[in-house]
Specification:
Layout lengths: L1 E2 L3 E2 L1 E4 L3 E5 L4 H11 L2 E6 L5 H4 L2 H7 L4 E4 L9 E3 L4 E4 L4 E7 L8 E5 L4 E5 L2 E2 L2 E2 L7 H12 L6 E4 L4 H11 L4 H15 L7 E2 H7 L8 H9 L8 H13 L3
Parallel strand pairs: 4-5, 5-6, 6-7, 11-14
Antiparallel strand pairs: 1-2, 3-4, 8-9, 9-10, 10-11, 12-13, 14-15
Helix pairs in contact: 5-6
Bound molecules: zinc ion and fe (iii) ion (FE).
The site of zinc ion has 5 residues, from loops.
C-alpha cells in the first residue's frame, strides 16, 4: 500500500493472517488490518531507515509478533536478527523466505526472497529502472548486491519500496536511448501511472533488460559514459560509479 509520498509498504495476507514488509508508518497498516479483519503475524525489515521501520513500535503495541531485521543494523523492536542464507518462516501464511545480504544503500541492508512464489522484497536496493542511493556502502558493494539480485530467475517479481520508476526510466533513456525494451517499458509504465496504477512489482528479467544499473557493461552504455567524459577506463566498478554519480545530479 502507498505511504508517505512514494513509499510502498507490502502487506502479504490470506484473508486471515498478514505479514508486513518495511512498515515505515503504522497508521495505514493498522487501518487495513482493521478493515479486512486481519491479524498481524510478522514484521520483516530490510534496513534501518525511518520510512521503512518507523511504524514498528506502534504495531508492536497492537500485535506481539516477531520482528525480523538485519544483523548488522540496530533497529528498535527487532527480535530476530538475520544474515545471508538465513531462513524466515511465517507458518500462518505458509511462507518461507531466504535472506540475501545486499549492502550499499545501507551497510546491513537485506532482501527477502520467497523462492516458491518468486517474490523478492528488496527495500531500497533495486528499484524499478534504478537503484538506491549509496548512503553507507561503496559502489563496489552496491554493484555486487545488484548482481546477486540479477542472478535470480527472470520471472522473480521485484517488490521494491518506492515508486521511483518513471524518474529512473527518464535517466535510463538518457543513458541508453537506443534500447528498444527500455523505450517500450517507459511508455508502458507511463500509461500505468497515468491511470494511478503502481509500476511495482516489476521482474528481474525486465530490470535486466532496462535498468542501467544492471547493464553497466552493455557496450552502448560504456560508449555513452566514455563519450560524455564520465568514464576514462572501463572497469565494471568504474562504470557503475560513473552511472550512480550521473544519476545523483540528473533532473
Ligand atoms: Zn532507505
Ligand atoms: Fe526508503
Amino acid at each position: 500500500m502507498p505511504a508517505f509520498n512514494d513509499n510502498y509498504l507490502w502487506l502479504i495476507h490470506d484473508g486471515d493472517s498478514a505479514a508486513v514488509v518495511d512498515p515505515g508508518d503504522a497508521a495505514p497498516i493498522l487501518a487495513v488490518l482493521e478493515r479486512r479483519q486481519l491479524k498481524l503475524v510478522a514484521i520483516l525489515l530490510t534496513h534501518h531507515h525511518a520510512d521503512h521501520a518507523g511504524g514498528v513500535t506502534q504495531l508492536l503495541q497492537h500485535f506481539a509478533v516477531p520482528v525480523y531485521g538485519p544483523e548488522n543494523e540496530i533497529i528498535t523492536g527487532v527480535s530476530q536478527l538475520l544474515s545471508e542464507g538465513d531462513g524466515v518462516t511465517v507458518p500462518e501464511l505458509g511462507l518461507q523466505f531466504s535472506v540475501l545480504e545486499v549492502p550499499g544503500h545501507t551497510l546491513g541492508h537485506i532482501a527477502y526472497l520467497a523462492p516458491e512464489q518468486g517474490w523478492l522484497f528488496c527495500g531500497d536496493t533495486l528499484f524499478g529502472g534504478g537503484c538506491g542511493r549509496l548512503f553507507e556502502g561503496t559502489p563496489a558493494q552496491m554493484r555486487a548486491s545488484l548482481a546477486k539480485l540479477a542472478a535470480l530467475p527472470d520471472p522473480t517479481q521485484v517488490y521494491c519500496a518506492h515508486e521511483y520508476t518513471l524518474a529512473n526510466l527518464r535517466f535510463a533513456l538518457e543513458v541508453e536511448p537506443e534500447n528498444a525494451a527500455l523505450t517500450s517499458r517507459f511508455e508502458h509504465e507511463q500509461a500505468k501511472r497515468a491511470q494511478g496504477l503502481a509500476t511495482v512489482p516489476s521482474t528481474i528479467g525486465l530490470e535486466k533488460a532496462t535498468n542501467p544499473f544492471l547493464r553497466d557493461q552493455a557496450p552502448a552504455i560504456v560508449r555513452r559514459l566514455i563519450a560524455s567524459g564520465r568514464l576514462r577506463e572501463n572497469t565494471p566498478v568504474a562504470a557503475f560509479t560513473a552511472l550512480r554519480e550521473w544519476k545523483n545530479t540528473f533532473h
